[in-house]
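Thread: "does anyone have the structure for this chain?"

Original post by V.I.:
We have the sequence but no experimental structure in hand. Need at least a predicted one for the grant figures.
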Amino acid sequence: MVAKEDLEEKVLFVNRCSKVVKGGRKFSFSALILVGDRNGNVGYGFAKANELTDAIRKAGENARKNMITFEMEGTTIPHPITVDYDGAKLLMKPAPDGKGLVAGSCTRSVLELAGLRDVVTKNLGSNNRINQVKATFKGLLSLRNRKKALAIRGKSE
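Reply from O.Q.:
Generated one for you, C-alpha cells below.
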C-alpha cells in the first residue's frame, strides 16, 4: 500500500444543494476527490455532508480506501480501449513518447494523478463529471498487459 504522505489530493468537483425549510435555506455539499501518487496508484471518493470541509474530508477518506493499480506500459497504456459507464462513453488510446496527455478535464486529472503522460482520450458521451471519472476508472481496470495476456493463452509473441 502507498504511504499517506506520498499521495496527492485534488478536489475535482464540489456541488452545493439547497433545501428550503421553515427558517430559510439549508445548504448541503457534495465533493468528488481524486487521490494519486503519480506512479500507477489512483483513487476517487465521493461524499456528501452539511459542511463543505466535512464533505471534502469524507471524500478524501473514501478515495484512499478505493485506490486501484493498473497496467502501464512506460508512460502510456498498453492498448486502445472504449468504455461505457451510464451515459459516459470514453475512448482511450496509447500515444507515442512526448505526445503528452490529450484529454478532457476530469479524465486528464485522473490520468495525471495516476502517472500516465502519453495518452489520447475522447469523451463521447456524458458531461457528468462523476460518470466521466467512473468511466475512466473502469477503463483503467480493464487494461491488460500484452505479455501476460499471451502467456495466459499459451502463445508467444
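V.I.: this helps a lot. The chain is about 30% helix and 35% strand.
O.Q.: and Residues 70-152 form a domain with the Ribosomal Protein S5; domain 2 fold (CATH 3.30.230.10).
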